[in-house]
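B., you asked whether I could sanity-check this one before it goes into the benchmark set. Here's the sequence:
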Amino acid sequence: QVQLVESGGGLVQAGGSLRLSCAASGRSFSGIIMAWFRQAAGKEREFVAVIRWSSGTTSYADSVKGRFTISRDNVKNTLFLQMNSLKPEDTAVYYCAGRMGSFVSASNLYDYWGQGTQVTVSS
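And here's what the prediction gave me:
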C-alpha cells in the first residue's frame, strides 16, 4: 500500500508558476510509476505527466509539454510537478497517483491516489 499527500496548490495569475508536491509513504517504490492527473470542474480526469521512479524516465500530455516538469526526490520519497507559464485552462484539482508496471495514461489503471490540491489560474 502507498499513501500519497499532495500540497502546493493555490491561486496564481496567468503566466505564473507553481510547484506541486506529493509526499509518498508505504511500500517499496521499486518498480512504481507515479503520475499527475487533473480534473477541472465538470470535466473528466485527465493525464498530465508520468515518471518511472527508478529511472526518472518521463512522459507528458501534449497540453503541458514544455511548460510542466515532473520529477522526484528518491531520498525524501516526494514527487513534484513544476508548472510554468500557467494558463487559465490549467485550473483544476491536481492529483498524484501511483501504480506498478508500465507507463499508462488511463486514470482507472492507477491504484494509489492522493486527496488532490486545487490550482486556480486567473486571467
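One thing to flag: The radius of gyration is 13 Å. Otherwise nothing jumped out at me.
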